[in-house]
Specification:
By secondary structure, this protein is of the alpha/beta class. It has one domain: Purple Acid Phosphatase, chain A, domain 2 (4-Layer Sandwich), CATH 3.60.21.10. The chain has five helices and nine strands. The strands form two sheets. A five-stranded mixed sheet has the order 4-3-2-1-9. Strands 5-6-7-8 form a four-stranded mixed sheet, with no helix packed on it. Helix 3 links the parallel strand 2 and strand 3.
Length: 169
């Protein structure tokens, strides 16, 4: 049965992110190839992946080449570094669906690029990217940036189980 995965902030082709976030790669080519290999090791061809923004700093042809190598049905929620290109650019690059706005998944998980304000009375967990190595305290946020997930997508089950455990704890 197909699975659902979440990830964000790959920054394909962005050399400076290696230093900015202390990523364990010698250069951008090594980073890009490792991110592709890690994605495909986790995600099968029939799975769905929600990418929560900041996918690629490369041009259309190079971005399309990367997307075509990645397993799964790919849904992009535009991040701050993606929005300048618009929905149609990302669809042409190869994403199956593109949203300019946050989405609600399974009536409980609020998917966005930037972390959203969530008070203790809101019935959601905000699964987000954008803040890379940082992390919000509390049960209402789950940072899905690659720096927190071993540079690979995380399954919905892993996120759900982590949220349930932290709420019970």
């Amino acid at each position: 049965m197909p699975d659902v995965f979440f990830t964000s902030d790959h920054h394909f082709g962005h050399k400076l992110i290696i230093d900015f976030e202390s990523r364990p790669f010698a250069n951008v080519q090594e980073m890009d190839e490792a991110l592709i290999a890690n994605w495909n090791a986790a995600v099968g061809p029939e799975d769905t992946v929600f990418h929560l923004g900041d996918f690629s700093f490369l041009g259309l042809e190079a971005t399309s080449a990367i997307i075509s190598r990645l397993n799964g049905y790919k849904i992009l929620i535009l991040g701050n570094h993606d929005r300048g290109r618009g929905r149609s650019w990302w669809l042409e690059a190869g994403f199956d669906e593109v949203s300019e706005y946050p989405l609600v998944y399974k009536d409980f998980f609020f998917l966005s690029h930037e972390p959203m304000y969530m008070n203790k009375h809101m019935p959601y967990v905000n699964v987000h990217g954008h803040i890379h190595g940082q992390k919000y305290e509390g049960n209402n946020h789950f940072n899905i940036c690659v720096e927190h997930s071993g540079y690979k997508p995380l399954s919905f089950a892993a996120i759900r189980d982590a949220v349930v455990v932290s709420e019970e704890g």
